Amino acid sequence: MTARYLGPERFGLWLLLGSFLSWVSLVDLGLSNTLTTELARADGREDSASPPILVSSAVFPVLVIAASILLVFSMLYPWANWAHLLNSTSAAASGEVGPALAVTAIIFSVRLPLGIIGRIYSAYQEGHRYQLWSGVGSTVAVAGLIGALVTHATLPVLLATFYGLGLVGDVFAAAETFALRRPWLIPRLRNFDLRVARSLLATGLMFWIAQVAVVLLLETDLLVVTRMFGVAAVAEYGVALRLYGLVSLVQMAFASSLWPAYAEALARRDLLWVKAIFTRSVVLGAAWAVLASAVILLLGNWAVRLLIGGETSPGIGLLAAMASTAILTAVAQSLAMLLNGLGEIRIQAWFGMGTGLLNVAVSVVLAKVLGLPGVALGTTVAVVPNLAISAWFLRRRVQVLKFEALSS
Asked: What three-state secondary structure class fits 346?
């Protein structure tokens, strides 16, 4: 919908700024992810006293972080040459970069505390209810985007309309959670406990490092493309990335709910269930990734030409490189959900950080040799050691759990 309207360079900015908004959970220092695990464990123990304290002790620090982001950005905004930083050359794109970034920063800061709502739903294994509200928000956002396009809005207005209205689903989800289903979880200062907040933060920092690793591994490609090939090239690369993003999106719609389920089952020592579900998730995830990637590889260029015309069309080399990444990532995501349920974040954090840095380095090197496909292939190369280390560690951890279960 936006590619033809914006043109290559502004469309590249649209994709790049949209990817920034997907990094929201990166700046909460892992608090929301830790909250998911702790709420799930409390639910498994039938502990009704801890959840209100856990939620309040996570929400208020996140609110402080969100306010700090807005303050720092507002101080930097007048002084930075945003068009130069994002390698924008056209007059239309350069004139809209600054205001578009300002809109992105505001939405980012609002989205940050609202993101905790989804983690609460996940902790109680009600992610399907949250996805229904997200669907409402997405529907409203698309309707608003159509209206903005019809009225010939600028890029900042498109961002505000689409991503701003997309928050409607989170607002409704928050209202359902705090007003109707679990009013005892409403964040209150009297429930804030500094010791609990520190405990969440201590574990959350490992989540945060793991999230930084994921961003370095899977989300920095657009930045590499921007700096090496210009923001116009982001359109070509970003379209292919969005196509393969659907592969991961569908899988994670199912796999993400396994994280709190694993945590609850492990709290009850139900290892047989964990083993059966984990095996099934790996097999089905890999099968889905292979099938979907093959379809995109065969029909991707045709689909892009049909939807947005011939100006932006990823080549077969780029699609093939991304297909290999999508398949390996599908297996890695299944492993990560079980490691999260086990509370084994440290191993993912440190080895993942090394893998992420490796991705950036290899992507830059291969991009100089192979062009855009080299950026995607760099991610594939970096995923392999991460996958091998995760599988090795998980096998050892499961053996320990089996021994503990037999001993008890």
From this structure: helix
Q: What DSSP line would sit under 281-319, residue for residue?
A: HHHHHHHHHHHHHHHHHHHHHHHHHHHH-SSS---HHHH
Alpha carbon distances (Å) from 299 to 56, 64, 243, 302, 323: 48, 46, 11, 5, 13
How many residues appear in the chain?
408
Stated as kind and residue range, the H or E segment containing 45 is none
pLDDT band at 59 (very low <50, low <70, confident <90, very high): very high
Give the tens place of pLDDT for each residue, 204-232. 777 777 767 666 666 678 778 887 887 76
Distance CA 364, CA 229 (A): 11
Average pLDDT for 336-342: 84
List of residues 6+ apart from 45 with CB closer than 8 A? 267
* Residue with token string 């890029």: 155
Alpha carbons 177 and 186: distance in angstroms, whole number: 8
Per residue, what are the HEC states of 212-232?
Answer: HHHHHHHHCHHHHHHHHHCHH
**Separation CA 263–CA 37 (nearest Å):** 7
Q: Which DSSP category does 29 fall into?
A: T
Q: For residues 113 and 32, what is the distance between their CA atoms, to the nearest angstrom?
A: 9
Rounded Cα distance, 252 and 134, in Å:
15
User: Cβ(54)–Cβ(35) under 8 Å?
Assistant: yes
Distance in angstroms (rounded) separating the CA atoms of residues 386 and 362: 14
The pLDDT of residue 61 is: 92
What angle, 0 to 180 degrees and rounded to 10, lies between the N-to-C axes of helices 345-370 and 316-342?
170
What one-character DSSP code corresponds to residue 129? H
Q: What is the pLDDT of residue 87?
A: 67
The most distant pair of C-alpha atoms in the chain lies apart, rounded to whole Å, by 70
